[in-house]
Amino acid sequence: MNDVPHELALGDVYLSPLLPVFSLALLGAWMTALILNKLRLSRYIMLPSTTFLAFMVLYILLMNTFWIRI
């Protein structure tokens, strides 16, 4: 089927591919929130925490589609 392993190996420790995807999505959502704050566009957002989660989900889906393939 697929020759790519479904886990990441760090020495003798196997990690789920969700760990780097979640970390990068968190970092991307944080950077997006900073950019929105700098451009003062965040004042138009009614629910900032929900918007942050939506950006995280968007980044996770984009990484799954184009990069890591969870």
Compact overview of the structure:
This protein has 70 residues and is mainly alpha-helical.
What does this structure look like?
This protein has 70 residues and is mainly alpha-helical. It has one domain (8-66). Helices cover 57% and strands 9% of the residues. It has two helices and two strands. Strands 1-2 form a two-stranded antiparallel ribbon. Helix 1 packs across helix 2. 6% of the residues are buried. The model has no long low-confidence stretch (mean pLDDT 87).
Overall pLDDT score: 87
- Could you estimate the helical fraction of the residues in percent? 55-70%
**Uncertain spans:** none
In N-to-C order, the SSE pattern is EEHH
Number of domains: 1
Number of helices: 2
Global morphology: elongated
Biggest sheet statistics = 2 strands, antiparallel
Strand order of the largest sheet: 1-2
Tell me the number of strands.
2
Amino- and carboxy-terminal Cα gap? 15 Å
β-strand percent reads 5-15%
Class by SSE composition? mainly alpha
Rg on CA atoms, Å: 15 Å
Give the helices and strands, then pairings.
Blueprint: E1 8-10, E2 13-15, H1 18-38, H2 48-66
Antiparallel strand pairs: 1-2
Helix pairs in contact: 1-2
Descriptors for this entry?
single chain; 70 residues; two-stranded antiparallel sheet; elongated
